[in-house]
Design a protein that fits this description.
By secondary structure, this protein is an alpha+beta fold. The protein has helices at residues 3-10, 61-77, 126-143, 161-174, 184-191, 199-205, 246-257, 275-288, 294-298, 300-321, 333-349, 352-365; strands spanning 18-24, 32-39, 45-53, 90-91, 100-101, 107-112, 212-214, 223-225, 232-235, 242-244. The termini are far apart.
Length: 369
């Protein structure tokens, strides 16, 4: 996208100054993101984040933005209770709206750019993992008392593993790209574990695990850190904030912090589950998440297995469907991603007892037991 087009989009927003630089930013799989620099006539510079909301993924972009606006207003109202926390700030349009839809049918939004922070795509430092876990738990603490009404469920059944499994089987049955024979081992891996896909959902339906307001995309790079103190100071990428289970957030955080390999690693032998990172995640989370029930704590280790398994199913489904959901940068990247997630899930299966013991020790040490 050229700068002239970006400037035309930004004309609708109440930004300060004129655009001097616009460049792609971030490593997300879904939306298109640009870092914008502007300058006023007096030389004052400003930075913004411009994002195109992928409306093929988020079918109700206005609901996404209304969720985000309510979330940010609530977080900002509580900042004084949580010193050091930074909260995203939406830049509204000149008419006061939280986003625009162009004549081409594309949806755009603008945030003030959060500076003086750092993020990680991969991390092998237990202190950073502890802080990320603490940061995501604190985010949930801050959102726990959001007043009614219930947030929109912007992607229905987003973390519903039974639905993800059913969608995979449908994709396998249709085999639109003639790829099914290639993924026979991966299909066997899933089918051998299908009895586990509804475990958390069943506990929720029985009233044993409560619904929470959850982030639903707690990758390590959605936590921002103070470069000096190394404290987690902000949680970003709020597109998927909606009702869900706290366990989904914890499990997804473990998926990206406890894997020793890159998400697209083609050599699955290099995929290991780092139990020390898991211990750091559990400790940071339980140190901070004061809202957890005993049932939720009991399932922390299971959630660390479930999320790689579920995301692996999603990558495999997208591969069978022709790579229409996740951005890919080379052929078969979604298959590599799938195999990495399944190998991680397999590694986790081999240390479940140790993981459960870690959870029990941490729960006792943090006053949850």
């Amino acid at each position: 996208m050229n700068q002239n087009t970006i400037e035309e989009i930004l004309e609708s927003f109440a930004i300060k100054g004129k655009v001097t630089e616009a460049k792609p930013f971030g490593s997300g799989h879904i939306n298109d993101t640009f870092k914008i620099t502007t300058e006023e006539a007096n030389g004052t510079a400003h930075q913004y984040t411009l994002q195109r909301i992928n409306h093929a993924v988020f079918r109700q972009p206005q609901q996404v933005m209304d969720n985000i606006e309510r979330t940010l207003a609530h977080l900002n109202s509580k900042k004084d209770q949580f010193p050091g926390v930074k909260v995203l700030n939406l830049v509204h349009t000149k008419e006061g709206r939280n986003c625009i839809r162009t004549f081409a049918g594309k949806w755009w939004r603008v945030y003030d750019f959060i500076d003086d922070v750092e993020s990680y795509d991969n991390v092998r430092d237990a202190d950073v993992v502890y802080e990320a876990a603490r940061g995501f738990a604190q985010f949930q603490n801050m959102m726990a008392d959001l007043p009614a009404p219930r947030l929109y469920e912007t992607i229905p059944y987003f973390h519903c593993t039974p639905m993800r499994y059913a969608t995979l089987e449908e994709a396998a049955f249709l085999d639109l790209r003639d790829r099914l024979n290639e993924v026979a081992p991966e299909m066997d891996f899933v089918r051998n574990r299908k009895h586990l896909v509804a475990h958390l959902l069943n506990r929720y339906l029985r009233g044993q695990i409560p619904e929470r307001i959850t982030h639903n995309d707690t990758k390590i790079n959605n936590a921002l850190f103070d470069p000096t103190t190394k404290k987690c100071v902000a949680v970003v990428d709020l597109d998927t904030i909606m009702p869900g289970l706290a366990l989904y957030d914890f499990g997804d955080m473990c998926r990206t912090t406890c894997n020793t390999a890159d998400e697209s690693e083609p050599d699955t032998d290099s995929v290991q589950f780092d139990i020390k990172m898991f211990e750091a995640a559990v400790t940071g989370y339980l140190d901070t998440a004061r809202f957890l029930t005993q049932a939720e704590i009991q399932e922390l280790a299971f959630s660390a297995w479930l999320l790689p398994f579920m995301i692996g199913i999603r990558f495999l489904t997208d591969y069978l469907q022709g790579d229409t959901y996740f951005k890919t940068h080379y052929p078969k990247q979604n298959l590599d991603r799938c195999r990495t997630q399944f190998k991680l899930a397999e590694r986790i299966e081999n240390c479940r007892e140790e993981m459960q013991a870690i959870v029990q020790r941490a729960a006792k040490a943090t006053g949850h037991a």
